[in-house]
């Protein structure tokens, strides 16, 4: 009887240190692509969501259409979304980023708008009485008070983006999703498990980082609980 191989790669085990040591450059490149796609899509989504939320707050009639459109976009399955964007962007990283931006809008717009609406009217009136103009009122009063709700939406949008980036593997730009997809096609256990665990680590780390940023930017929320 032939003895089993000593190499965990040859035995195709789920947990394999040899995979980490021999494929670390591949893993690092995949992690960097995953982070780039996630970060870029969330930043662009935030840049689009803030004006939309401000417009919806400023003109009440716009809130319904803005929330309706962003909600409908979020209900489109990811494969269908990428297919609809394919004629515009082709097989590129831009296709993945565009899809993730559209998905992030419903979470970001809804939470930013909720935060702005939660600012007490007496606070606005007091600021106006102190001579605050519309821009100063927005930047120094309304947006800071809306930060807790906005950051909650940003955290959810970021974690969702980390997950959805993996679907980009269908067009070759999925970060760690590329490794998961290739590993599942060949039943490469160590690759599937390692890439999946790294996705979870990135999502948890991003959420904790944003939570820390939120606590730094909103110290009054902690003071209110003590």
From TrEMBL:
GO terms for cellular component: plasma membrane. It comes from the Bacteria. Pfam families: BPD_transp_1. It is a multi-pass membrane protein. It is found in: Cell membrane; Membrane. Residues 31-210 form the ABC transmembrane type-1 domain. InterPro entries: ABC_transp_perm/SBD, MetI-like, MetI-like_sf. Belongs to the binding-protein-dependent transport system permease family. This is ABC transporter permease. It comes from Streptomyces spiralis. The lineage of its organism: Bacteria, Bacillati, Actinomycetota, Actinomycetes, Kitasatosporales.
